[in-house]
Specification:
The protein is 0% helix and 50% strand. The protein has 517 residues and is mainly beta. The strands form three sheets. The chain has a 25-stranded parallel β-sheet that branches. It is elongated.
């Protein structure tokens, strides 16, 4: 069958159906299920190997109508340039189901799930396959509650370029369950100010989302990614709260086997190129946005090259929490709280100022590593290998409590002048610093508190590293609390007004120590 246009359900015509089966083929330039208002509950089924609906231009499932459905099953195939599920703001509850191994919906250009409509659905299950060059879920501001669900081993949605969850729309979702997969160039959630409270869930062993870049809250607020129950997300770059207006965005990675992996370096820099505002291999929790968060819970793992909490001057009150036995945040090159440093390959290789009030909380057996802990390669600061609390921003905070563990190459609190940070190690937690702990690199008013049976070990400890570093504090307090220096302590090395206190049964040991007035 050949036709220029085929509409199943036209002008208030409802409950009509098209079935293509047993190798049948239909060729059209346009295809519509539910063309006009009132054209509801119409259906098309493409079933059986060799059965094809070939649409040379555009397929609409719910152009204006409601509750229309396209079913592709048993190795059936639909091909189109553009696909729309819920094209207008009048179209609701329309759906496409691609079910079974060998069942395919091929979109050579864009696929929209909720262009303007609401509560429309794409379901890919049991080995079904959907391809699109680009895709949006909830395109316009009135497009809410649209969803894509990918379920079952072998089920795949392949997006060649950008995938947007909430371009302008809010409350849209993408779910990847039980061994299903997504592959896309970039995935953006909350692309515009109007786009909020969108959700992506990756759940179940073998469930995987593979990206070049993940942006959770470009301008929008309250967008959430949940990786759970053994699910996995791989990306070259992750930003939570990218622009200054983005707030309350969140990534939650929870449960044993659940993983967020940012582990590949791409060469994004060129001499004489534009100023770089983000770099591959980085995890940013608040690049410019505020009150964004990452949570690593209950045995989950997050791994990256560099972690940044509060990257630019507007990025304030962003938080990372690592909590629960077996929960790990691994940063192979560096971790910055407030400000960050571009990699040495960048022509703009320099420190960038961060916002205030950014924090890292490690508790209840959670662990944070900086450096290649698998090979004991923990490089020095200058390029890599350090936690820096308060580098170019003020009031950054790190709290480690309740049997948590940190291991790092170098540890700086208040790296830059007139900047401050505070660190608390408490309740049986441990910190191993392979090289130096510096409280007050060039900044003043920084503090390191080791309390409640916690233990800290470092090769060297400095309290005030430069003449401008004043009024920094090192407190070791409580029965069972231990601070040990393998080589030496340089207490109050530079600056003035520093305080070093040991109290309430705490112990301090060193091979040698200097107290400089």
């Amino acid at each position: 069958m050949r036709a220029s246009s085929l509409a199943i359900g036209y002008l208030r015509s409802s409950e009509n159906s098209l079935v293509i089966s047993d190798g049948g083929q239909v060729n059209t330039s346009l295809g519509h299920l539910g063309y006009a208002n009132g054209a509801n509950n119409n259906s098309a089924t493409i079933t059986g190997e060799g059965s094809v609906w070939d649409i040379s231009w555009q397929l609409d499932v719910g152009y204006f109508g409601d509750n229309n459905q396209l079913l592709i099953e048993n190795k059936g195939r639909v091909e189109s340039d553009y696909g729309y599920i819920g094209n207008s703001d009048y179209s609701e509850g329309n759906s496409v189901i691609v079910s079974g191994e060998g069942s395919v919906w091929q979109n050579n250009e864009n696929l929209f799930v909720g262009m303007q409509g609401s509560d429309n659905t794409l379901l890919i299950e049991d080995g079904g396959y959907v391809f699109s060059a680009r895709a949006e879920i909830g395109s316009e501001s009135m497009a809410t509650g649209n969803s894509v669900i990918i379920n079952g081993t072998g089920s795949l949605w392949n997006v060649d370029n950008d995938l947007l969850i909430g371009s302008y729309g809010s409350g849209n979702s993408l779910s990847v369950f039980d061994g299903a997969s997504i592959a896309a160039s970039s995935l953006k959630m909350g692309s515009e100010l109007s786009s909020s409270n969108n959700l992506m869930i990756v759940s179940g062993e073998g469930s995987n989302v593979d990206l070049d870049e993940l942006m959770v809250g470009v301008f929008g607020a309250g967008n959430v990614v949940q990786v759970m129950n053994g699910g996995r997300v791989d990306s070259h770059n992750v930003l939570v709260g990218e622009e200054s207006g983005s707030s309350g965005n969140r990534i939650l990675v929870s449960g044993s086997g659940s993983t967020l992996m940012i582990n590949e370096v791409l060469p994004p820099f060129s001499v004489g190129g534009p100023v770089v505002t983000s770099a591959s291999g980085y995890l940013y929790v608040g690049l410019e946005g505020h009150d964004n968060s990452l949570e690593v819970l209950d045995g989950a793992v997050v791994e990256d090259l560099y972690g940044v909490v509060g990257g630019m001057a507007s990025a304030s009150n962003n938080t990372v929490t690592v909590s629960g036995a077996g929960s790990e945040w691994r940063n192979s090159n560096g971790l910055y709280l407030g400000g960050w440093k571009l990699p040495a390959t960048s022509p703009e290789y320099s420190w960038l100022s961060g916002g205030t009030g950014n924090s890292l909380i490690v508790q209840d057996g959670g662990q944070v590593f900086v450096g290649d802990v698998n090979t004991n390669n923990l490089p020095m600061i200058g390029t890599t290998g350090a936690i820096i609390v308060g580098d170019i921003s003020g009031n950054a905070e790190l709290v480690a409590a309740n049997e948590s563990r940190l291991r790092v190459g170098d540890f700086y609190i208040g790296l830059s002048s007139n900047e401050s940070g505070s660190v608390s190690l408490d309740s049986g937690s441990t910190m191993l610093i392979e090289n130096s702990l510096i409280v007050g690199g060039a900044g003043s008013g920084n503090s390191m508190r080791i309390l409640g049976g916690a233990q800290l070990e470092a090769s060297h400890i400095m309290l005030g590293a430069t003449l401008g570093a004043n009024s920094n504090e090192l407190l070791v307090s409580g029965s069972g609390t231990l601070m040990h220096t393998e080589y030496g302590q340089f207490l109050a090395q530079q600056g003035a007004g520093h305080q070093f206190k040991v109290s309430e049964g705490a112990r301090v040991s060193a091979q040698y120590a200097y107290l400089v007035s």
